[in-house]
Amino acid sequence: MEALEAVIQYLKGAGLSTSQIASKTHYGDADGWDVGSPAIVVRLDGGDPNLYAVMNRARIEVRTFAMGDYAAMALMDEVATAFRKAERVDQAVTGGSALIYWINPESGKSILFDPDIQMDFGLQFFEAAISVKGI
Predict the structure, then answer these.
(1) pLDDT of 19
(2) Cα separation of 64 and 119, whole Å?
(3) Which of 19, 37, 47, 72 could bond to 58 as cystine, CB 3.0-4.6 Å?
(4) Which residues of the chain fall below pLDDT 70?
(5) Three-state DSSP string of the chain
(6) What is the distance between the terminal CA atoms of the chain, rounded to a whole angstrom?
(7) What is the pLDDT of residue 135?
């Protein structure tokens, strides 16, 4: 969980055009996110299972929601730009800090449509190399 928290906290401090950034199962899950408002959902999607390694690699799924495919992809471009700048970043997490070595794209961008909420969203996978240090 620390790797996911590190990525989310990093994005929250990256100056993106939305502050609605979280890990959740569904867009808008009772957190006051209005359908139609831009948001970023970040989830773990596998990675290196070795919990005893100094550095772990986590596969990260990023979904960007917005009204319209252009807006969803523009938000994904912001995320990708922020991740390109993540090189040896010391990020505060609960109970300590995490060193983000890098976050690289692992797939191309996709634009999809969610029929339940009637919104476009962008989808892209990234790999993050992160070392978590306790206090």
Answers:
(1) 83
(2) 10
(3) 47
(4) 1, 25-32, 48-51, 53, 133-135
(5) CHHHHHHHHHHHCCCCCCCCEECCCCCCCCCCCCCCCCEEEEEEEEECCCCCCCCEEEEEEEEEEECCHHHHHHHHHHHHHHHHCCCCEEEEECCEEEEEEEEEECCCCEEEEECCCCEEEEEEEEEEEEEEEEC
(6) 16
(7) 44
CA dist 29 and 42 (Å) reads 13
Answer whether 124's CB lies under 8 Å from 107's CB: yes
pTM assigned to the model: 0.88
Q: What is the pLDDT of residue 10?
A: 94
Q: Where in the sequence is the domain holding 115, given as residue range(s)?
A: 2-134
Tally the domains of the chain. Answer: 1
